[in-house]
């Protein structure tokens, strides 16, 4: 295992455009609240064969007692019969600053799995970036720190999804709007947005109007990555493709909408009072306590939707890798989340925990 650590306190003279910074300041709370929905697309090849799936959802939550947004993006499938995927779990402040973000990518080759994990976390007046790359040669770890003063107009992969939704609902992209972002090597780069205009797309049995946005992230190696995303008028993603990729993500069915937002389809049942005979008093108390605990647990899960996202990602990667040592695999999977844990606590410490 190879580990290297570096600190980057000075960055290149890269700056976001004035339009980009002004756009971020202009975003109102209601603009962000209109982004609270889920997208679910299917990844298909040029021939129309299904290769995988893509989903992204945004919900309200809290982070260290601060109201914020939780974004969970997930993409899994096969490209040229090679399993690969990406997962992003992020906490985003109400002014679109990254509080914490975990970005996990993998490619499952015949004899090995190549993984890249990037963990961003805001600590005081800095953004700390931990990058872990697992390859055949071993594991390489890098740590960089960026002063927040140098990241004005910074947009991460997670906040990009929310900006896209806001721009799509407005059906306009400001001229020469350039943000700061990270390239695949976690090098600070420019991220340029451009309007692609409107066109029509067949979704299910309906021909609908969609609005396109192009995003290009320049790389420090004189290369760039460009994505074309098209959206429904309410901000739902209709299609997404990276130029040069043999796959495209498409929406197969129109989402159920009500006034531009997803209607809550979860049925609400009124709690009916329990009526018991006098000899059932103790059993009645038991049932009451049971309901009280269930409500308490459900409330906690609703307040922390990241629980479902974390467990879903862990189980998916576990079933893909099928490791012999599940405990070690779980330790490695959750290791990037340990940045906020108290010093001295580790997986080994839990083995000595007195269970009596």
From TrEMBL:
<protein>
    <recommendedName>
        <fullName>Ciliogenesis-associated TTC17-interacting protein</fullName>
    </recommendedName>
</protein>
<keyword id="KW-0970">Cilium biogenesis/degradation</keyword>
<keyword id="KW-0206">Cytoskeleton</keyword>
<feature type="domain" description="Ciliogenesis-associated TTC17-interacting protein N-terminal">
    <location>
        <begin position="19"/>
        <end position="246"/>
    </location>
</feature>
<dbReference type="Pfam" id="PF21772">
    <property type="entry name" value="CATIP_N"/>
</dbReference>
<keyword id="KW-0963">Cytoplasm</keyword>
<dbReference type="InterPro" id="IPR048777">
    <property type="entry name" value="CATIP_N"/>
</dbReference>
<dbReference type="GO" id="GO:0044782">
    <property type="term" value="P:cilium organization"/>
</dbReference>
<dbReference type="GO" id="GO:0005856">
    <property type="term" value="C:cytoskeleton"/>
</dbReference>
<comment type="similarity">
    <text>Belongs to the CATIP family.</text>
</comment>
<dbReference type="GO" id="GO:0005886">
    <property type="term" value="C:plasma membrane"/>
</dbReference>
<dbReference type="InterPro" id="IPR047501">
    <property type="entry name" value="DD_CATIP"/>
</dbReference>
<dbReference type="GO" id="GO:0030041">
    <property type="term" value="P:actin filament polymerization"/>
</dbReference>
<keyword id="KW-0539">Nucleus</keyword>
<comment type="function">
    <text>Plays a role in primary ciliogenesis by modulating actin polymerization.</text>
</comment>
<keyword id="KW-1003">Cell membrane</keyword>
<dbReference type="GO" id="GO:0005634">
    <property type="term" value="C:nucleus"/>
</dbReference>
<keyword id="KW-0472">Membrane</keyword>
